[in-house]
Amino acid sequence: MEITLNRLGAIVLLILSTPYATLAQLPRSVPYQWKNVQIVGGGFVDGIIFHHTARGLRYARTDMGGAYRWDERTRRWQPILDWMPYKDLNLMGVESIALDPSDPDRVYLACGTYTNPDTPNGAILRSDDRGKTFQRADVPFKFGGNENGRGNGERLSVDPQDGRILYLGTRHDGLWRSTDRAATWAKIESFPDVTEAVPPARPRPGPDAAPAARQHWWAMQPHVGSGIVFTIFSKTATSTKARLTSTVYVGVSLMGRDNLYRSTDAGATWSVIPGAPTQYRPTRAALASDGTLYIAYGTDPGPQQMTDGAIWKLNTHIGAWTDITPDKPSAERKFGYAAVAVDAHNPMVVIASSFGRPSTNGTGEDIFRSVDGGKSWRQVFGCGGTFDYSLAPYVRPTPIHWLFDIEIDPADSNHAMFTTGYGGWETFNLTAMDKAQPTRWSIMSTGIEETVGLGLLSPPSPSDGKSVPLITAIGDYGGFTHADLDRPAPEGASAPPRFGNTTGLAGAELNPNIVVRTGNVAGRGLGANISYSLDGGHTWQPTASVPQQGAAAGSVAVSADGKAWVWVPERAAASVTMDRSANWKASQGLPPNTRVVADRVNPKVFYALALFDGKIYVSTDAGQTFEAKTLGLPDSLPKAGRRGDPRGGQDQLYATPGREGDLWLAAFDGLYRGAFSGSSFAKLDGVDEIHAFGFGKAAPAADYPALYLVGTVRGQAGIFRSDDVAKTWVQINDDEHKWGLVLQITGDPKQYGRAYVGTHGRGVFYGDPK
Q1: pLDDT at 495
Q2: How far apart are alpha carbons 717 and 690 in whole angstroms?
Q3: N or C: which end of the chain has fewer CB within 10 A?
Q4: What would the pLDDT profile of 720-770 be if each residue is shown by its tens digit?
Q5: DSSP 580
Q6: pLDDT tens-digit profile of 605-658?
Q7: Angle, CA 52 vertex, CA 50 and CA 57 arms, to 5°
Q8: 152-161 average pLDDT score
Q9: In 39-138, which ranges are E strands?
Q10: Rounded CA gap, 38 and 19, in Å?
Q11: What is the per-residue burial (b if ≥16 Cβ within 10 Å, else e) of 232-269?
């Protein structure tokens, strides 16, 4: 079944003769039920905050996926920032959380993801109903919820004597205070200047780079402190002039100079605490009930590698310092310490976590526990801790990493939790160590979903009827084949090879058993950066070869019959294989780094779009050669500055299922439909902005696939579905389901109305009409 240019012309005329009716009214809303596709964790949970008197009340913060409150009744974490709109996506990175010790209903969040010049200022969100609703106070500085030191803390704290008073440490703008429950803020001018000026170690991206690239550069600068990393109120000292806590401790991520300060007059004046170790940076601190201040130190705020570190304690009554480091780093064993916590019921019981500790006798990263104030320690994992991976099977092959917070439940000395780069763990028998018995640990992150959905594939039903609902491409953890959307994939991340990021994912429309994915292999020496499945994603295998040495990531397209695969590696030219990678050949006529899509009907046809060059490329020989055509649009091309910016829109080409030669162009500025002869694209009325686009099963009695879109329709932002070829749209999300930034959307070709969305930090969701 080959397609000719004459036949394509007929297809173009047919498409252009279709009337596009428009309606001026706003899209009506259709109620949907949304649920996370269960992966569990999948991102950096960088803080756990317990309320010290309300049993079971605790919150979790993440670096780019919002915040959560634990629900004791359902035994799950409940998201509390899913209402965040796209325009405020910067606030999905949570720098710090504070609870009011005297009022368990009050919670405060310092929100902001980056401090670079391209990012808006941050905001303090305050709630008096445990995060069900919030009020917002914009602040004149930025937070770095996804920057170095994001696991430090807590920067935000509430005066236990007077809940109206809050202190806030910032990265670059000093110490701030509120006297009206976070409604307004003023800088504490008496606090010393602790600015650290460090020149960037990596070249800054050029002015044409996408904002995402500039943000990543800013976030990953090495050996830069993270400003004020903790503020702690004394548990006993009270001002005689007012109902205020007079003694406050502040730690600053500085090395080689003073980094620990104290005020004894409710913030009026500040002094350096003498004797503090300055050869490291403080990362976290805990104040015991007897006035002992325990501090974890490392040479880097993390999560980049530390070369040295320690645990120290300060007797705040007499000013005496003691080095209580459990395991001292050395020139041969370089690591640091990220977290420390103390038992609320026993000031002598302390736990601390290493960071980047090399493996010794099979044990690497570890937690150390002391029952005598740090005079002696026992290793928690090294003494036989056991781990139950059943709630998140994908973490089994991943060593514990980014262990940046560890806490002992103030209501239960047996219950401890620690965070990691994929969620975290908890135990309910911590004190078993006192009897020389092993502790038992299980996944603590049920309900937390912090993955980034980089690609979604909902395969059509194959002839054997074994099609799965969804296959995902995920940042950092490769991807998953979801046979059950409500349970984590039992086999974990797709393997082999096990990818870090999966950047390309495509299936054969007429043979859904064939699926191909591309990405970056996790680790070294594990195989090629491309793999495939012949059973619909249930099992995977690496390819026999790659088109060129070092080929990685990029995008992939699979012909409708599954015989031709076109891979465009990152920053490279396209190559095609017709024998499952035994041989590759360069695709001729296509510029490097140009994404290719397959026609969903004709296995000989592939398309590629160079939108900002005004070109569309067509192959009628299964991807071996491409012919360039002028892309004629009814209005001007989008600005090239949007290229590569995930917030700026898809700017991509899509081929319609079941319709040969039928194409859709989802541009930032609008939606176009046409065919690959180029000049035929017509703009659809009503679509103002697009961030993601996809197809699903047609509505009952309809003969065209349903369309799904993330963006703005007639001035209304949201997630939309059209059942009548984009003549009208309905909104399928509501005010409680926005998730900041949504990167991907597709419908299910097997079930009308079902939509899948991939977010930037809140995981993958599926929605069904109610």
Answers
A1: 63
A2: 10
A3: C
A4: 999 999 999 999 999 999 999 999 999 999 999 999 999 999 999 999 999
A5: T
A6: 999 999 888 899 999 999 999 999 988 787 765 544 343 344 445 689 999 999
A7: 45
A8: 97
A9: 45-50, 58-62, 67-71, 76-79, 94-100, 103-111, 123-127, 135-138
A10: 42
A11: bbbeebbbeeeebbbbbbbbbbbbeeebbbbbeebbee
Contact 171, 115 (CB under 8 A): yes
Does residue 360 have a pLDDT over 90?
no
Looking at residue 550, its pLDDT comes to 87
Tokens matching residue 85:
């709109």
Give the rounded distance of the alpha carbon of 679 from its chain centre: 39
Q: How would you classify residue 346: left for phi > 0, otherwise alpha for psi between -120 and 50, otherwise beta?
A: beta
Return the structure tokens found at 480. 């998953």
From CA 707, how far away is CA 698, in angstroms rounded?
A: 9
Residue type, 761: G
DSSP string, 668-695: TTEEEEE-TTSTT-EEPTTEEEEEEEEE
Q: Which residue has the tokens 């058993």?
A: 513
Dig out the tokens for 431 from the structure: 């004190």
CA–CA separation, 217 and 202 (whole Å)? 8
Tokens, residue 584 = 């590759």
Q: Taking a C-beta distance cutoff of 8 angstroms, is the pair 626, 601 a contact?
A: no
Gyration radius of the chain's alpha carbons: 28
Task: Provide φ and ψ at 586, rounded to 5°.
Answer: -70, 135
Do residues 548 and 575 make contact, with C-beta atoms less than 8 angstroms apart? yes
Average pLDDT, the chain: 90
Nearest to 265 by CA among 251, 280, 279, 244: 244
In the structure encoding, which two tokens stand for residue 295, read together?
Answer: 């501090």
Among 208-222, 229-243, 479-493, 586-600, the range with the most confident prediction by mean pLDDT is 586-600
Answer whether 727's CB lies under 8 Å from 707's CB.
Answer: no
- H/E stretch holding 11 reads helix 5-16
Between the two ends of the chain, the Cα-to-Cα distance in Å is: 41
Q: How far apart (Å, rounded) are the C-alpha atoms in residues 13 and 661? A: 12
Instruction: Name the residue with tokens 């900041």.
Output: 740
Active site residue 703: no
Pair of tokens at residue 596: 């290719």
Q: What three-state secondary structure class fits 432?
A: helix
- 305-329: pLDDT as tens digits: 999 999 999 999 999 999 999 999 9
Q: What's the sign of the alpha-carbon dihedral 542, 545, 550, 554?
A: negative
Exposure string over 471-481, b if 16+ CB within 10 A, otherwise e: bbbbbbbbbbb
The reply to whether 476 belongs to the active site is: yes
Please name the amino acid found at residue 648.
G
Which residue among the candidates 476, 651, 662, 669 is catalytic per the annotation? 476
As a whole number of angstroms, the distance between CA 604 and CA 621 comes to 5
Cβ(697)–Cβ(739) below 8 Å? no
pLDDT tens per residue, range 489-545: 987 766 667 888 999 999 999 999 999 999 988 654 445 799 999 999 999 999 999
- Quick check: 215 pLDDT over 70? no
Q: How would residue 19 be classed by pLDDT, with cut points 50, 70 and 90?
A: very low
- Residue 168: helix, strand or coil by DSSP? strand
Full DSSP string of 621-633: STTSB-EEEE---
Q: Which residues contact 271 (CB under 8 A, 6 or more apart)?
A: 261, 262, 263
Q: What is the pLDDT of residue 225?
A: 73
Of 46, 63, 366, 405, the catalytic one is 63
Q: Where are the beta strands (DSSP E) in 706-748?
A: 706-713, 716-722, 730-731, 742-747
Mean of the pLDDT values across residues 143-150?
Answer: 96
**9 band by pLDDT with thresholds 50, 70 and 90:** very low
DSSP 8-state assignment for residue 642 = G
Map tokens 């993801």 to a residue: 113
Structure tokens that stand for 727 in this block:
């003549």
